[in-house]
Amino acid sequence: MDITIRAVRPEEHTALGEVTARAYLADGLLEFGEADEYLVALRDVARRAAEAEVLVAVDDTGRVLGGVALAAGAGADLAGAGEAEIRMLAVDREARGRGAGEALVRACVDRARAVPGCRRVVLSSHLAMAAAQRLYRRVGFDRTPARDWAPLPGVTLHTYGRDV
C-alpha cells in the first residue's frame, strides 16, 4: 500500500477526527472513555488546522489512515521558544504497522526545519503508548523527564524531544 503524507483537506476533517478519537478510545488513553471531554478536542480537526499544521496519511484510494498536528505557539501545550510540538498523532488500528505513523512523525520533523527559529521538536506521550514511544526513539527523539507533566490529576505524560 502506498502512503501519502500531506496537509489535511477540509473535507477530511471529520474522517481524521473520527480516526483520532477511535484510536485514543481503542488504546484506552482516555480516562473517562466515551464520556471523556478530550474527545471533543480529538474530533475538532478544524480547530487544530486553524492553530497548527495538520498532516494526514492517506492510502492510494484516498482513505484517511491517520494524522498529526505540528504546533508552534498557538495550539502547543509543551513547546516553548524555538520549538515545535507534535500533537495528537493517531493511526487507524487497521492501518498500523504499515509505516503511516513513522511517516507522519518524520514529516513533522522535516516541516519543523522550515519553521523560522525552530531548533527542536517536542512531544508528550501517555505512559500506555509503548509502540509510539519506540517509534519516537527510532526516529531520534530522547526522553526529557524534567518536562513530564500531568494534564489531569493521576495522568502523567512522558515527554520527548529532538533537535532539527
UniProtKB/TrEMBL annotation:
<dbReference type="Pfam" id="PF00583">
    <property type="entry name" value="Acetyltransf_1"/>
</dbReference>
<protein>
    <submittedName>
        <fullName>GNAT family N-acetyltransferase</fullName>
    </submittedName>
</protein>
<feature type="domain" description="N-acetyltransferase">
    <location>
        <begin position="3"/>
        <end position="162"/>
    </location>
</feature>
<dbReference type="InterPro" id="IPR016181">
    <property type="entry name" value="Acyl_CoA_acyltransferase"/>
</dbReference>
<dbReference type="InterPro" id="IPR000182">
    <property type="entry name" value="GNAT_dom"/>
</dbReference>
<dbReference type="InterPro" id="IPR050769">
    <property type="entry name" value="NAT_camello-type"/>
</dbReference>
<keyword id="KW-0808">Transferase</keyword>
